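Problem: given the chain below (457 residues), write out its structure.
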Amino acid sequence: MRSAVAALLSVAISLLGAHATGEQPPVAPPAEAPATPGDTAPPTDTAPPADTAPPTDTAPPAGPPAEAPPGTKTPATPPTEGRPPSAGRPTRRPSASPPPASPPPAAENAADPPTLPIQERPGAELSTPKSEKKKKKKKSKRKQAFRIGLHVHARYTIRDEDGADLEHEFGLRRARVAALYRADKLLEAEVDFDVSDSPSLKDAFLELRAAKWFRVRGGQFRKPFGRIALMGPSSLELISRGHVDDLLVRGLGFGGRDRGVMISGKASALRYSLGAFNGTGTLDEIDSGKDAAARIEVEIADPVRVGASGSMKYRNPRGLTQLPQKAVGAAGIDFALDLGVLDVVAEGVWAQERTLAVERDSVGVVAFAVGHIAPLERVGLYPVIAGEMIHPDLDLDTGTIWVVRGGPTVRVHETVRIMLQAEGVFAPVGTLVGAERSVTLQLAFDEKLKLALVEKD
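Solution.
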């Protein structure tokens, strides 16, 4: 009994001393009371064994603070939660060096795998900059394309001329077979025959494409003069190119097919063509004179294109020592407007004619518009209307020729066209053409078949 009272007095004295100095004395373990035989009770809290890890959600018991090296100030211990700091406890300044970081709980480190950089994670895709990627070498392949073109235009015409009986005529305007060969976009060759009347060679040329802006073509082909004269039969919604083309462009030899050489190309919105020709059309050469033809076209905006053409003919026939003028020329200007639902083309031509019998300058203007109506998926309606004006001789008041024509065109599957057009020619007596009225129904078939596409390494 005396020993228990002495232990309590020593604990009280130590608490009073700690409160006076502001330090927390170590708590002495309570003295074990002597066990009384007969009244032994089981312990209320059983301590876990030493090798058992505490639960992950329970913080480990704080051990005694580590002793700081001499000369280092120890930071003040923050107050524990739920107990206010003592009023008499002095305030300590924090040390200049940051406190050591406490390691994460052992349980969390054991649960999570070690974190690796993204480049070292197994299965992670490494992102390489485009500049560091190695470009794959493309295999060089040679592409060859063979195409066969077929053009068959059959028509029926009713014509009424002044002072003549009504005419009914079945005709075959075109029956052409064309073979086209291309290799690697560097070489193109074409041969085109027309057998509608008698077998005749239309086109036969070879073109080398050194670059997009420089191509060389040689053989028999269309001269680079005029817009309408260069349009193919499958892209022209008119039954014929008109009287301006018949009388001034092809009629005087400034346009149409001829034999020669031409350079052409495209740079941005500019297209150009320049060539030298015999000047005798599809016939053989008859003299040492040559023709020159050039054309330039500029795409001002997406739907608007403007072009200009020029040509000069130089004649030096054998056996003739004097001509009124050996060199004659022609010029033209044109534009095209493509609005999607409406196409408009207009062209003006000035041409000279100098022979032993005739000396004159002529002008002509032609314009046409084509509408696009597609009522069904593979059937389209394309109405067209055109007008022409021709003044045969600017020096003489011989009158002006006016031409009006138009009608509907029905396209089926983009290869078959049913064209119905009426034409009226109003001309004074004694001009190059006579007044007439006509109606023409034409069935046109235009197709290009791809025979083969060969690729070689």
